[in-house]
UniProtKB/TrEMBL annotation:
Organismal lineage: Eukaryota, Viridiplantae, Streptophyta, Embryophyta, Tracheophyta
Annotated Pfam families: Nudix_hydro (PF18290)
Key words of the record: Hydrolase
Name recorded for this polypeptide: Nudix hydrolase 6-like protein
Family statement: Belongs to the Nudix hydrolase family.
MF annotations from Gene Ontology: ADP-ribose diphosphatase activity; NAD binding; NADH pyrophosphatase activity
Domain spans labelled Pre-nudix hydrolase: 48-127
UniProt entry tagged with the keyword Hydrolase: yes
């Protein structure tokens, strides 16, 4: 018998600790099955907290606190059913690197990888049986440059200093944006 303690963040933004006991289903089975007291089963029926996006979807940003994969799977299944009933479309789950053990349950629920950063993995799932309109991960950056020329043929520049000395540059730049280019 193994005891583990896991904290879960639920939709109604309160925190609750769940005590989970894993026991063998039978003497011949080597894989543990969860045994949850009735009160804890009711708590597992809650849904993951998320923020609605402007496109009819939900963004779930998981905290870095450890979570038992069995409890998380129950929460995710209940959440998916809830979101489907609400008519939600795209579901985004941002998993911090500390919750690597939850990747498999998320993928088994139909999610796919969208993008990865050094400290998190973003997974997505399109619920409706319509064309998936979730945007692909950005693979390019867009910059802009312009120049001003006088009647004498002179070009406006600014001087940038660096390790190799100062050199002229044409004004321009990059925008760091979390939105897509329209």
């Amino acid at each position: 018998m193994v005891d583990c303690l896991s904290e879960c963040k639920f939709k109604n933004t309160f925190r609750i600790s769940l005590n989970v006991r894993s026991m063998s289903a039978s003497a011949s089975s080597s894989s543990p099955s969860p045994v949850l007291p009735d009160k804890q089963l009711q708590q597992v029926d809650n849904v993951l907290s998320g923020i609605e996006d402007e496109h009819g979807g939900v963004i779930v940003e998981m905290s870095k606190e450890p979570m038992d994969p069995v409890i998380f799977t129950s929460l995710l299944k209940a959440s998916m059913l809830h979101w489907k009933q609400q008519g939600k479309r795209g579901i985004w789950i941002k998993l911090p690197i500390e919750l690597v053990s939850l990747i498999e349950p998320v993928v088994k629920e139909g999610f796919s990888y969208h993008h990865a950063e050094p400290k998190h993995l973003m997974l997505v799932h399109w619920i409706p049986e319509t064309t998936n309109t979730l945007p692909a991960n950005a693979s390019h950056r867009v910059g802009i440059g312009a120049f001003v020329m006088t009647e004498k043929g002179e070009v406006l520049v600014w001087w940038q200093g660096g390790r190799v000395g100062k050199f002229p540059r044409i004004p321009g730049g990059m925008e760091v944006s979390l939105t897509g280019v329209v």
